[in-house]
Design a protein that fits this description.
The chain has a domain of 89 residues. The protein contains eleven helices and no strands. α6 packs antiparallel against α7. The longest helix has 18 residues.
Amino acid sequence: MAASAKRMDELGQRLLAAGAAMEAADIELDAGNVVGAAEIAVAGCARLEELGERGWLSTLAGQAGQALYALGRIDEAWHWTEVAEQAGAEDDVITRLLILQVRAKVLARRGDHAEAERVAREAVQLSEETDMLSEQGDARVDLAEVLTLAGRRDEAAEALAAAEALYTEKGYLVAVKRTQVLLEDLRAPAV
């Protein structure tokens, strides 16, 4: 991806190079490099803003929010949901999902468990209106985190099992393995 983006820049395709940050951030997340994903997403957002591109910016801002949340930088994560919301179109389902998912987790971290669950379940419902199995799984993984933070581990395990089934159906093996690890951790006896 890095070589591809560099070549696009060399050919004067600045917009495509900036937009490639969406895929590059996903690759870094799948590789477990959350810091790299956050850096790529935030830098890509800056380039897209500079170019005046809003459609890709909204999605990449949501991805930045996800990565920053994973780093524990919840105020920054919330900020990027605001950027995504301002840039996104009403019918941009991916962006809407990312906004809802990040906000649900941030709300849960802030202790507003009822609102966090409401928002997380809204994301799950929205994802079910699509045929995007990965996004349906992602919404359930984030619901599981919200439920775990509320102390509802059994329900969280159910959400993770549903996510694992969706990822398996999709053939998204990295997500299957990541979800299995989350399930094992959740089912492990508390120390």
